[in-house]
Specification:
- With 75 residues, this protein is of the alpha+beta class.
- The protein has helices spanning 33-38, 47-74, and strands at residues 15-17, 21-24, 29-32.
- Strands 1-2-3 form a 3-stranded antiparallel β-sheet.
- A hairpin with a 4-residue loop joins strand 2 (21-24) and strand 3.
- The model has no long low-confidence stretch (mean pLDDT 88).
- The chain binds zinc ion (ZN).
């Protein structure tokens, strides 16, 4: 049975099925089906939003990492 996916952002049905992901033609955003099925609608992030989020975490942790190294050098 084919499940109908709605865009978690605009609830539009103008959806392109890409296998593991769907793309909303209206928002031009790609979402993972896994997220849509397992998260609340307002918690679902678009794929590119997730990538930006992961990047920001990585750059934050890199900063923290080098900071702790500096602190160790000072001691
Ligand atoms: Zn949409």
């Amino acid at each position: 049975m084919n499940k109908k996916y709605k865009c978690p952002r605009c609830e539009g049905l103008n959806i392109q099925d890409l296998g593991k992901t769907i793309e909303c033609e209206d928002c031009q955003l790609e979402f993972e089906k896994f997220d849509i099925e397992n998260l609340d609608r307002d918690e679902v992030l678009a794929v590119k939003e997730k990538l930006a989020f992961i990047k920001s975490i990585k750059s934050n942790s890199d900063e923290n990492h080098s900071e702790s190294k500096l602190k160790k050098k000072k001691r």
